[in-house]
Amino acid sequence: MTVTSPPLAVEGVSVALDGRLVLHDVSLTVHAGEFVTLLGANGSGKSTLVRASVGLVPTIGGQVLLFGTPLADFTDRARVGYVPQRTRAVAGVPATVDEVVSSGRLSRRRWFMPRTQADRAAVDAALDRVDLAHLRTAPVSELSGGQQQRVLIARALATEAELLVMDEPTAGVDHDNQQDLAALMGDLVKDGTSVLLVAHELGPMGPLIDRAVVLESGRVRYDGAVDHLLDEALGHAAHTHRHTGEPPREGISGEGVW
Amino acid sequence: MLDLLDYDFMRRALLAAVFTGLAAPAIGVFLVHRRLALLGDGLGHVALTGVALGLLTGVAPLVTAVIVAALGALLIEFLRANSRTSGDVALAMLFYGGIAGGVLLTNLADESAASLNAYLFGSITTVSDGDLILVGVLGVAIVALCLGLSPQLFAVCQDEEHARVSGLPVWLLSALISVLAAVTITVAMRTVGLLLVSALMVVPVAASQQITRSFRSTHLVAMVIGLAAALGGVVASYEVETSPGPTIVMLAIAAFAVLAIVGASRRRFRPTSPK
Question: What are phi and psi of B113, to 5 degrees?
Answer without folding.
Answer: -60, -20
